[in-house]
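Progress note, sequence design subtask.
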């Protein structure tokens, strides 16, 4: 992984362009067109070259390289020529011939470029000639546009530069707000988590916050679920029923199936139908709702179960996210304790175990919190219903929860030790905490690794 800053963007792009230009002896705009077509994947481009040859490589990307000596050069000033766009007879030095061989007057070219740049099409401005698909030489565009509209020439360059990120499969802008200006390039796996030099950790694939071990799909579903009011609505449907007369939600209190609304209407809790008040424990006078009641009850049971299940996972998820936030705030105080300790007259000098421990704590805390939505979907029915039998599901769930709980216990312990006021302790006691933190860091590393192994080998 590599962070590309505003300053290094140009150099990074140049490097790729240069490689392709040298290898295929191409001009810059042809190399760029090729690279944009292959989404700046130089290796892929080379593979196509080896496999299919130069002609096919160019044809696929729509590059037509016509060798032409006087490309982009004006004619001798003495002669005149006709511009086929504005139909004027003009001196040769006010006209420009593109690599495809088409020649038009500079005013017509400039007009054409301005329109294309404003349309956001800097990446592939084609020749004006009818049915000519050739991409115009960037140097010509730059120089002609620059003469009349220097600001637009700059925009053109910026667009070309940004194409390196926007058309590149392996490079993406950092999603920070306000934008830090950086982009991230990954090496070979586009499904990974990265950290920008601005400190933001994000999922390279979906650009949301880093969410492993959840897949992007799980994470998307989970955030939507948490956002939706639907669960609350669900709660209300489970615990209340609308009055058949005034439609206000009415809660059931007690075991009796006859409930009454504040408006005075009595109704049957099981089917929601209006009834009289005359009833016994098992039946309401003049009212029967038989089979319908069973379905209704099943549905209610089911909604209730789903809701409790979600709440179980959400509570854990939230507890860890909250701890994470608290610990991030604590970071300042803990680092403060380090500097106090370093000032002290003592034989202890090295406090890197504190920063290392904190780093482990933050990392494992994140993994833990995301492991709950992961489990919610992994062992739920929404995504993997038909992937395994109920028995398999149960075995896998136990396996995973074992890992999760071990990790959880050790993360809490680590958090506890790091919060100790070690700056006020004797050297011996600090040494003891140091040992604990170092040991726990190792255990947590192993447990995190084991949890991912469990996910990869046993669950998926
Ligand atoms: Zn013209
Ligand atoms: Zn042309
Ligand atoms: Zn950033
Ligand atoms: Zn993602
Ligand atoms: Zn009512
Ligand atoms: Zn009653
Ligand atoms: Zn009923």
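Output:
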């Amino acid at each position: 992984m590599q962070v590309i800053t505003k300053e290094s963007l140009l150099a990074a792009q140049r490097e790729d362009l240069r490689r392709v230009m040298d290898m295929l002896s191409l001009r810059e705009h042809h190399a760029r067109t090729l690279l944009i077509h292959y989404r700046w994947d130089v290796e892929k481009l080379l593979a196509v070259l080896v496999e299919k040859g130069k002609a096919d490589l160019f044809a696929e990307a729509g590059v037509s390289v016509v060798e032409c000596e006087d490309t982009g050069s004006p004619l001798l000033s003495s002669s005149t020529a006709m511009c086929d766009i504005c139909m004027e007879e003009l001196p040769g030095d006010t006209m420009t011939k593109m690599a495809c061989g088409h020649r038009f007057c500079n005013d017509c070219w400039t007009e054409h470029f301005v329109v294309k740049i404003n349309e956001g099409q800097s990446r592939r401005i084609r020749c004006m000639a009818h049915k000519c698909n050739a991409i115009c030489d960037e140097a010509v565009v730059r120089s002609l546009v620059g003469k009349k509209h220097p600001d637009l020439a700059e925009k053109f360059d910026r667009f070309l530069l940004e194409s390196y990120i926007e058309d590149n499969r392996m490079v993406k802008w950092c999603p920070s707000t306000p934008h830090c200006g950086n982009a991230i390039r990954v090496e070979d796996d586009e499904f990974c988590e990265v950290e920008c030099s601005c400190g933001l950790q994000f999922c390279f694939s979906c650009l949301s916050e880093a969410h492993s071990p959840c897949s992007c799909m799980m994470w998307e579903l989970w955030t939507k679920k948490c956002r939706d009011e639907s669960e609350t609505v669900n709660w209300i449907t489970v615990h209340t029923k609308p009055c058949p007369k005034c439609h206000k939600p009415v809660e059931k209190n007690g075991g009796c199936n006859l409930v009454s609304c504040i408006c005075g209407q009595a109704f049957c809790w099981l089917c929601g139908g209006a009834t009289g008040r005359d009833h016994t424990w098992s039946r309401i006078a003049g009212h029967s709702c038989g089979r319908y009641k069973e379905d209704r009850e099943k549905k209610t049971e089911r909604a209730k179960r789903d809701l409790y299940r979600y709440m179980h996972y959400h509570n854990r998820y939230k507890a860890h996210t909250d701890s994470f936030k608290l610990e991030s705030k604590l970071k300042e105080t803990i680092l403060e304790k380090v500097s106090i300790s370093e000032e002290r007259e003592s034989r202890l000098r090295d406090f890197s175990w504190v920063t290392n421990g904190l780093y482990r704590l933050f990392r494992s805390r994140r993994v833990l919190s995301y492991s709950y939505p992961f489990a919610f979907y992994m062992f739920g029915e929404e995504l993997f219903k038909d992937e395994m039998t109920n028995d398999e599901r149960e075995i896998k769930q136990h396996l995973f929860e074992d890992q999760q709980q071990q990790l959880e216990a050790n993360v809490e312990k680590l958090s506890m030790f790091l919060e100790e006021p070690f700056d006020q302790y004797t050297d011996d006691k600090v040494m003891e905490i140091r040992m604990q933190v170092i040991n726990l860091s190792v255990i947590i590393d192993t447990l995190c690794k084991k949890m991912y192994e469990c996910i990869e080998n046993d669950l998926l």
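The chain has a mean pLDDT of 85. Work on this subtask will continue into the next period as scheduled.
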